[in-house]
Structure formats: structure tokens, C-alpha cells
Write a structure and sequence with these properties.
alpha+beta, 31% strand
């Protein structure tokens, strides 16, 4: 009788391990990124997912205007393009 339930138990164990090692940590990372992007404010130093460093000068819903470089070039980017926020670091040259 125990032999008939063995494949079902092994499949359940495998799915449990898969969930706790892969799916759950990814969901936590996605939640942190979403929270970081929703908490952006004017003056934050950011790095885009493309590697552009800049300072947020204006925020309109899902569009951010950032200053880039010494000549203060202004770029408009989508909010989802923000890779991370640099806390306490400056990008001044």
C-alpha cells in the first residue's frame, strides 16, 4: 500500500522544495523592487536598469525626469526602468 503513494508523496515534496527555494524568494524580491519604485521621490540618486546614473528632478505618475552628467542633461524614463536607489552616494563629477 505504501508503494502506491510513494510517487505522489515524492512529487509533493519536490513541489514544496521548488516553492520554498525558487518561487517564494523571487516573490519577496519582486515585492521589494515594487516598494522601492513606489517610494521614489525628487532628489533621489538612481541607477536605471540600463546603467544610467542620475538624480530625479520631476515625477509624473509612471514617468520620471532625471538629470544626468555634469551638463545636467534631462532624460525622461519610465518608473519601471529604475534599477536601484543610491542611498547617501552622489554622482557628481
Amino acid at each position: 500500500m505504501a508503494g502506491t503513494y510513494s510517487p505522489i508523496i515524492m512529487t509533493a515534496v519536490f513541489l514544496g522544495i521548488f516553492y520554498f527555494l525558487i518561487i517564494r524568494p523571487q516573490q519577496k524580491r519582486d515585492k521589494q523592487v515594487k516598494e522601492m519604485r513606489s517610494n521614489l521621490k525628487v532628489g533621489d540618486q538612481i541607477v536605471t536598469i540600463g546603467g544610467i546614473h542620475g538624480k530625479i528632478t520631476k515625477i509624473k505618475e509612471d514617468v520620471l525626469t532625471i538629470e544626468v552628467g555634469a551638463d545636467k542633461l534631462k532624460l525622461q524614463i519610465a518608473r519601471w526602468a529604475v534599477g536601484n536607489v543610491n542611498k547617501g552616494e552622489t554622482t557628481e563629477e
